[in-house]
Amino acid sequence: MSPPARKPFKLGFFTHVRSASGRGEAHEELVRLFVGAEALGYDVGFVAQHLLAGGEEGSAPSPLISLAPVAVATGRIGLGVAVVTLPITDPVQLAEDALTLDGISRGRLQLGLGTGNANIDKYAAFGRDKARATALFDENLAVLQGALAGHPLRGTDLTLPVDGTPLSRRLWRTAGSAASARRAALTGLGLLFGTATLDARTQQRPIIDAYLAQWAETGPVEAPAEVAGSLRPRLGGIRMIYPADSRESALAALGPFLKAGRARLAKVNGIDSRDLTDDQVLASMNVATGSPSQTAQALRDDAALLPEVDHLIAVTNIIEDAAAGLGRKRTVDVALEGLERIAAEVAPRLGWTPER
Fold first, then answer.
1. What range does the domain containing 334 cover?
2. What does the alpha-carbon distance between residue 214 and residue 217 come to, in Å, rounded to a whole number?
3. Whether 252 contacts 289, CB under 8 Å
4. Which residues belong to any copy of the Luciferase-like domain (predicted)?
5. pLDDT value of residue 195
6. Does some domain include residue 88?
7. CATH code for the domain of 78
């Protein structure tokens, strides 16, 4: 008897928009990345937000602006943000900006929201107290969702014009705990997960289970009534994926990446980096690698992915880092080569088929 068919998923990528050449060139490459990924059949691409950062860390402090030229240059691929740091962002202005980009792209925006751990030390520069990150998130989310549903804004009689492709159905939240996952379900948001240091089985799986259990128990009871009935649970798993000719060649290319990851994990866990094997580093950072078949098997065995995941999202920085380990420059062409291999040799083994 053949095994049951797996639930289809959408294939995406995630980029930090890193560049040593300045924001202008970084954004030219971002457009090329999305255009190339769309040609490969990718369903969606997500852009990270890095505030007050150098280009080598990330060149997109305002991802909705960054995605505007992408929207014009593409016609099908989803435009994702992972994530806007909501506690330090005015929710009415965010609603206006998001609706504008969604209109330019004809309903292709996937808007991720979070407290922004990568930006947590920048809160003071924006006049916000990081100790209130969770409370500020909840307050601003209520305003944002109300604005997107056409409700009067903050006690006034002013409203935002909303169209027939409601962005409210395409909101996501990152969750680092079961409590925030349950909040995502109650408010009707999709759940994005994939922080590199959260173990898939012992940490991410309980977060997913809490989200699905809350949704099954109550549904999105805190979402605006206008859209609550059309919402469903959505899971987006972000993973580092690097297929190579063999596991040996993958490990060789990933040498500098593994060295940096080993040092970081040793510091976080208070252990000697020499006590960590390559396999332990890869597992701790949720990396799927090896030959295409081995890479697909690693994703299939991942405790927090298939069959529930709706979006499987590949991080481009590991592709770029592997190229650097082989003596090549980190460029959009390198990223697209890796994304092409994932789309052609890995994702189809998991049941995905490309859209053209």
1. 10-243+289-350
2. 5
3. no
4. 14-262
5. 72
6. yes
7. 3.20.20.30
Asked, for residue 258, whether it belongs to a domain, the answer is: no
What's the DSSP call for residue 7? P
In a domain, residue 2? The reply is no
Closest to 23 measured CA to CA, from 63, 75, 72: 63
pLDDT digits (tens, 9 = 90+) for 199-230: 899 999 999 999 999 999 999 999 999 999 99
* pLDDT at residue 6 in the model: 45
pLDDT of residue 7: 54
Cα separation, 273 vs 255, in Å, equals 14
Distance CA 40, CA 212 (A): 32
Tell me if 75 sits within 8 A of 165, measured CB to CB. no
The owner of tokens 């959408």 is 10
**Residue 157 forms part of a structural domain:** yes
Peptide bond into 256 cis (omega under 30): no
Instruction: Give the total number of structural domains in the chain.
Output: 1
Burial classification of residue 300, based on how many CB atoms lie within 10 Å of its CB (0-12 exposed, 13-18 middle, 19 or more buried):
middle
- Determine the Cα–Cα distance for residues 277 and 345; give it in Å rounded to an integer: 27
Residue 8 DSSP symbol: P
The answer to whether 196 touches 131, Cβ cutoff 8 Å, is: no
pTM, two decimals, is: 0.94
Residues of the chain with pLDDT under 70: 1-7, 55, 356
